[in-house]
Every structure is written in structure tokens, then in C-alpha cells.
Design a protein that fits this description.
The protein is of the alpha/beta class. It has a domain at 5-9 and 20-147 and 226-298: 3-Layer(aba) Sandwich (Rossmann fold), CATH 3.40.50. The chain is 33% helix and 17% strand. It has helices spanning 59-67, 93-105, 118-129, 149-161, 169-179, 191-194, 227-235, 254-263, 279-282, 284-298, and strands at residues 5-6, 20-25, 31-37, 44-48, 71-75, 112-116, 137-141, 195-197, 203-205, 241-246, 268-272. A 9-stranded mixed beta sheet has the order 1-2-3-5-4-6-7-10-11, sandwiched between helices. A two-stranded antiparallel sheet has the order 8-9. Helix 1 links the parallel strand 4 and strand 5. The two termini are 17 Å apart. This is Alpha/beta fold hydrolase.
Amino acid sequence: MRFMRTLPTTGSKRGTVPLRPLELTGASGWRLAAEAAGESGWPPVLLLHGGGQTRHAWAGTARQLAGAGYFAIALDARGHGDSQWAPDGDYSADALVADLAAVRASLRASPVLVGASMGGLTSLLAVGEGPPDFARALVLVDVATRLEPDGVARVLDFMRAHTGGFANLEEAAEAVSAYNPHRKARNTTGLRKNLRQHNDGRWYWHWDPRFLDHATRSRAGEALVRQKRREAAARRIRIPTLLVRGGSSDVLSPEGAHELQQLVPHAERFDVEDAGHMVAGDRNDVFSNAVIEFLRRKLPAGG
């Protein structure tokens, strides 16, 4: 694997699989931050987060994948977390796909793509519009060809409402809890990884607000990628595919999930009860186990 640089291993709790910080190269030499778990010779699984999230959203899943014999790599998309922010503000779907293609080219083997929301749309395009061997399997997390406009609008409204930052971490936790009842209020431990305190003393999300310039909204529930393009890409998917939907999601409805399965007839589906759009964060163990069970049937593990 041709990583730019391997950094010291981060600390981990006793009995857990350690996460190793990495730096990868995206399109045009963009610096992309990542963390890996497992052995590099095992089947690679790329974990792509949603808009406004970071690689830390996948920490639990990455460790469980490594424990099951897969080489998990959680990636910060451009403009998110510790990855390079685009000077020209280009966070279009094409730019995200180009970054993914650059990372894919550095791997020893064709990977499994696990993409949530924005990461799922990126993966859908990369597989549907790319070469047949771009990926060995695809897992879409609460995203499909048809999205619910009210749910998409609620996500974008939440992101736009807090670009001015928070007075403290407790205020941020309350905002997250109000948006997502599945998360407990005042739980600030994980927020420290997704927020940064600036010189003015306020805490800001660790992603470039210009990303929102590419997040469109319409009555078709479009965000980043037009629905016709999503549908065209889906029709060309031939690799094993799993759609994981949050049982309480307002972004992907049961009807939207069914439409994807009509476009990708071989796609399997798993609904996670008591989970919203942020499926992996709401019910991480249930989500991770569903992905691992799917992969074990489709792609033998290493180790």
C-alpha cells in the first residue's frame, strides 16, 4: 500500500483494536487524513463518512471490522476533519469521486466501499460510473437513488444553523440531541473530535462551511448529486451490494429503499431499528454486525 506517511499509533482502551493514523493522497495531490485498523494484507474496507462528519464516526466499526479480519480504513473527505480544505472551495461530487479514485489506486487490492450519506453517494458514483473492478462490494448507509426532501432539508438546515459555532461543548451537545433524539444530550466526549475551539473561544464544526455551496435542495430530495445521475449509476452496479437503512430515518424511506432494490435487483437490505439517518452512530454494534455478516458471505476475511 503506497501511503504518503504512517503516523504513530493512537492510544486505545485495553482490549480494543488500535487505530493507526495515516495520510493518503487524493486527486491533484490533496492531503487526506485517515485511520486504519487491522493488517494491510487483509481485504481492505474503505469507510466514507457523511457530510459534516469526520473519520471518527467510524471508529467503532473500524475496530470491529479489524477484529473480523478486514483492513479497515476510515477516511476524512476533503474539507472535513484533518484532511486538506480546498482553496477553491471545490467540494462537488466529481471532486469527491476523484479523491476516492486516487485512494483506490494506492491499494493493493480492490476494496469494499462503505459509504454513509455523502460517502454513500460518492461510492455509488465511483462504482456505477467507474471500471468494473473499482470495488469488490458496496455498502450504502441510509442513502439511495431517491431521498426524502424534508429529511434532506432538515440535515442541511442543521448544518447551516451552526456555522457560527457554539459557546461551549454542552451547547453543541444540546443542538445535536435536539436534531437527533437517539443521541444523549451533554455527551461531549465524542464532540471534541468533531469540533475545534478558535481564538474567539467558540467551538466550530471541523469542516469547511463552503461544502454547503454544493449541497443543493429540491423537492426531489437532491443533495450533491442529481437523482437521474444516481439512478443511472445504480443501474450499472454489478458487485455485491448491501443497503443499510435507519429504521427511523427521515432521509431514506422504505419506498426509497425499495426503488434502489428495483434498480439493483441483487442488492440486499438491512433495516436498523431505533436508528435515524446517522445509523452507525445510533446503533453501532447492530450496524457493524450486519456489515460483517454480509462481508463474510461475499468476501472471505484475512487473518
